[in-house]
């Protein structure tokens, strides 16, 4: 799915610090015309890209090129990760020599996913650069709650100093591209079993209402085999993954222009009961939905 990141004309991109305890899950597989850069600060994050699972630890620098269809499937409860997006126009202006030619690719020139474990000193430098660019950005709670990705949200990234941010994004882009060459190459990803890949597609692409036994039959394996293989390869249980998808859909339903109330959004997202939704929500955010959503959102 092609995602519109809604980056305003005044900006060459955006960045913000994603925090699991503040940020709603966004599990749909997607890509966008912007080059995306992730820097894992704390905890772990897990992506599925082109039928393979990648789990990234702190100090990992990860490049998601426009041709990379990617899906965030899990993250640690304490995970923090900087997400940066660079417009194609910025890349065209910034990359004029052979050293940076690879940044103009639709995908990484090697055909895989470019990921590097940075040296501690390099990680500190890049993180401090990102921290400095956040000065003048919107409130972290707002950025994490809205993030500019929601198809039905009118939110877009803002910064009090667009010129300073744009200059900083230019510097950050070149700094990170040079730094990834001096880092440690990471190992191969886990290639997903066809049944696991199909289960993810069925659960992610449609409103799958049947139980796990029916899901397993649709994937051509037994329920026990699917559950065991899914957990082993993806790193989370099928139940947790499905509940995370429902939580993601809840946010989309709740943010519709013709806004649903809390209960309507809960059932539209596929939860069987409010009690089930409440339990999943608290597990994700450490507090109840009304306390989490109270700031600036009618309930």
Task: Please specify the SSE layout and strand pairing.
Elements: E1 13-19, E2 35-42, E3 45-49, E4 52-56, E5 60-64, E6 70-75, E7 80-86, H1 88-94, E8 114-117, H2 120-133, H3 140-146, H4 162-180, E9 184-185, E10 190-191, H5 194-205, H6 212-218, H7 223-234, H8 238-254, H9 262-268, H10 274-285, H11 289-293
Antiparallel strand pairs: 1-7, 2-5, 2-7, 3-4, 3-6, 4-10, 5-8, 8-9
Q: What is the H-and-E element order?
A: EEEEEEEHEHHHEEHHHHHHH
Structural class: alpha+beta
Q: How many distinct helices?
A: 11
CATH superfamily of the largest domain: Regulatory protein AraC
Whole-number mean pLDDT? 85
Q: Into which percentage range does the β-strand content fall?
A: 15-25%
Order of strands across the biggest sheet?
Answer: 1-7-2-5-8-9
Report the count of strand segments. Answer: 10
Q: Specify the biggest β-sheet.
A: 6 strands, antiparallel
Radius of gyration: 19 Å
Tally of separate domains: 2
CATH architectural designation of the largest domain: Sandwich
CATH topology (fold) name of the largest domain: Jelly Rolls
